[in-house]
Design a protein that fits this description.
Layout lengths: L45 H17 L8 E8 L5 E2 L2 E2 L4 H5 L5 E4 L5 H9 L5 E6 L6 E14 L23 E16 H14 L7 H4 L5 E5 H9 L7
Parallel strand pairs: 1-5
Antiparallel strand pairs: 1-8, 2-3, 4-7, 5-6, 6-7
């Protein structure tokens, strides 16, 4: 039985300090905002050293060949803290996902066209980071995988749902969702502030996070990741937090 929608682009507002905005109905209406954390640049050499070590390992694995930029992984934002929207609590944490039958859920409530298009591009078996958003400390907490490709989002037709869209028609639905399944928790919580420190360093030295959409299109709740971005962020779980 469906549960209240929690996963949508208003959940991707600049974490915590950003007030909730009206759901964007076009990609152009969705403006990019700064994330809450604005950490100072990482200590000299810290991120660069990690990037060089990661790059050396990846080059060894690939024979030194650079891979083409393609999106084969994802980052999905959801709110772990209670917040009422039209009388419905939109909270949905990784623990809520783990409590679902077969640890599987539909990723509903997305109401941004670009994010919807990303949903429609997802393929079965692809992995994504589960990202806690709009909370005291945003960041990556787990890995999930796509287990059902895009199909019509039922919440767009439910007048009692906070994400009801009176302009959508069943014969031509505007909005889609996918099913995701819990894979595992990350070995440690990877905070936004740490990822951003690497992003700032990589902008200077050409590392894999230099164009990460988490910082170029911050408000999107569904974001694609290149293999290099996914692998580098995943490698951070092996490091001690800064």
């Amino acid at each position: 039985m469906p549960w209240p929608s929690r996963k949508r682009d208003k959940g991707a507002v600049a974490d915590k300090k950003e007030p909730d905005a009206k759901i964007a109905k076009t990609e152009e209406e969705t403006s990019d905002k700064e994330e809450e954390e604005k950490p100072a640049k990482p200590p000299a050499g810290s991120s660069k050293s990690g990037w060089k070590n990661w790059k050396k390992t990846k080059e060894s694995e690939s024979g030194g060949e650079e891979s083409k930029i393609t999106y084969c992984h994802w980052l999905l934002k959801s709110e772990p803290e209670s917040r009422l929207e039209k009388g419905v609590d939109v909270k949905f944490s990784v623990d809520d996902l783990k409590a679902q039958p077969n640890q599987t859920t539909c990723w509903d409530g997305v109401r941004n066209y670009q994010a919807r298009n990303f949903l429609r591009a997802m393929k079965i078996g692809q992995q994504a980071f589960f990202y806690h958003s709009n909370c005291k400390e945003p960041g990556i907490v787990a890995i999930v995988k796509i287990v059902k490709e895009a199909y019509p989002d039922h919440t767009q037709f439910d007048q009692k749902d906070p994400h009801y869209d009176s302009t959508s028609r069943k014969e031509n639905p505007k909005w889609s969702m996918v099913d995701v399944q819990f894979v595992r928790m990350t070995k440690r919580f990877i905070p936004l502030s740490e990822i951003k420190a690497h992003h700032l360093a990589h902008k200077a030295d050409g590392g894999p996070l230099k164009d990460m959409m988490l910082f170029t299109r911050q408000r999107l709740s569904i974001q694609p990741l290149t293999e290099e971005e996914f692998d580098f962020v995943l490698s951070l779980e092996e490091e001690k937090p800064h």
